[in-house]
Amino acid sequence: MNAALPPIMISSGFLPAGSLVESLIHISNEVASVEKLPFVQFRNISTMIRRVKLLSSLFEDIRETNSPLPPSSILCLTELFSVIQRVKLLIQGCKDGSSLWGLIQTQFLSNQFHVLVKEMGGALDILPLSLLNLSADTREQVELLHRQAKRVDLLVDPRELQRREELLQIMTRNNQKNSGNKGFDDFVKLKEVLNCIGLGSPLEYDEEIKKLEAEAAKQAGTGGLIVVSNINNIISLVTYSKSVIFVDRDKEEIKENFKQRSAFMNRNQDVSSSSQSILSNIPDEFRCPISLDLMKDPVIVASGHTYDRNSIAQWINSGHQTCPKSGQRLIHMALIPNYALKSLVHQWCQDNNVPLIDDSSSSFSKSESSRGKSKLSEKAIDHISATKAAMDAVKMTAEFLVGKIAMGSPEIQRQATYELRILAKTGMGNRRIIAEAGAIPFLVTLLSSTDPKTQENAVTAMLNLSILENNKTLIMSAGSIDSIIDVLESGKTMEARENAAATIFSLSIINDCKVTIGTRPRAFSALVGLLREGTSAGKKDAASALFNLSVYEANKASVVVAGAVPLLVEMLMDDKAGITDDALALLALLLGCSEGLEEIRKSKVLVPLLIDLLRFGSTKGKENSITLLLGLCKDGGEEVARRLLINPRSIPSLQSLSADGSLKARRKADALLRLLNRCCSQSHNPVG
Question: What DSSP string runs through 275-288?
Fold first, then answer.
């Protein structure tokens, strides 16, 4: 169902009066002849059709008079044609689209009908009834319609609002994975909601599922990840409801097969035939499209389709980048848990006495049963048990928090992102589990949050997750870089901006990320801005990110163009900034491009600063200082060489470094001394 009405293009010139009236009669009859009105928006649609029928009488009277129309009436009729055309599209969208999704959007759709009625009244404002030869009945009907349209109120069916709230409550409870009697109560309420919107047969359920899948596919890849998650939640609910209501009445046989299976297991006999019997009764909607087995851990991929986590992970890890079901290229590789379907699968398993056996836990139980051979093996198994329990706890927590981010209120999202931020702060295992729980796409969405704390927590959680190598690729694949740069440029808090810079530093460790970020010039400008405005830690993060990006040759010029060089030189004079070594390292790197060399040579204060740093700088600072001086003196740097020779501290500092510096510093100091000797040779006054 369209989220908004498409604009209707009307020619700047008017249709001939006869053609315009005929077009109005034709489109009015199309609207008036709509049959089988949808249950959702029924009152708005039926009222709108009645209004269009009244207008149809007006158009037919005008055609019968067959007299010239005044200009104002032609303008009115043209506007009415536009309005009725959009009425037709809106009604058709309500008929063809998903009824459940229409129920979720009931207020939005009701507002669209209200806007169209108001536009209809506005068009009738300029209709010169006194100049038209109309019957008394038609005139009276049009005047009545005009008055009603002018004072009409927004009509939102209270019954639809009630059903909408019930549906949202069911979705929320399923997302929280409630079970037991509450799950049964939800099913009863869900069945009532589905009946109220006209779903009564298997075919109608199938049609509704197809419409929801089409809506999910339309939303996938457009940034509407939360919307896709909500639609998949609804699909899961409808699918489960259908399986419960219309499944073949063979539960007793399933239970008997399960009893036989349990008896065989107790006697350590073969249970393969019983397992096959149980598996054969799994609803198709609960089977993974890849393995055709019951989905124990259903996840949603970027295309909007759902698979079992193990199956789709193997598919992706084998090098595929497309959705197995649709063939659509996946814009990111994040696997978003389908909480609603997982809850419904568990509910179905409980209702049908089908055990959900986790392969990993099963294999662990086998290893555990072999305990007792020695104290050493007991300790090893206890350690494995504790580790597995800890990982399971992290997984449960991560999935719970991602669910809160996906479906929660702004306050809940703020708290959940903070908890994820803390959880991702320690341990590579935690970072892997959080990413597998599908957190990354949702965190990307929250980077644009208007709540300062939510944005800060989201970007910091992203920073913590990016420490894990595999997560860097997932973060980039989720289309996050532009959102991270937005936070870097204009984040709600300084901490958010600084952590965005640290995230770029972390991501840019990977060469492909250097290239991708390098195609966005505003990233360099934003980092230079933070270098100017940030705290000491923020300036260090910005300098480190710029250094990493400058390792890729093509990015060096972009850093220079962004104005980094004068600022870096200024940082060398600011002891409080605490980034002298970082600034020197970046300047030494920028020296490697012609734009950087030219910009650095423009500085009048740099050479004296570097001479002082040769004496008082850190080991790394001395190495970068001598690298800069040597580079500035080479290839036409006679002016810099003369300034070095004039400074009384330069030669002693170089000689001291040549004798006592690090291997790299000694080598470069010797090279610079030889270069200065050549400069002095003409005056027969060598140095050394």
Answer: HHHHHTTS-GGGB-
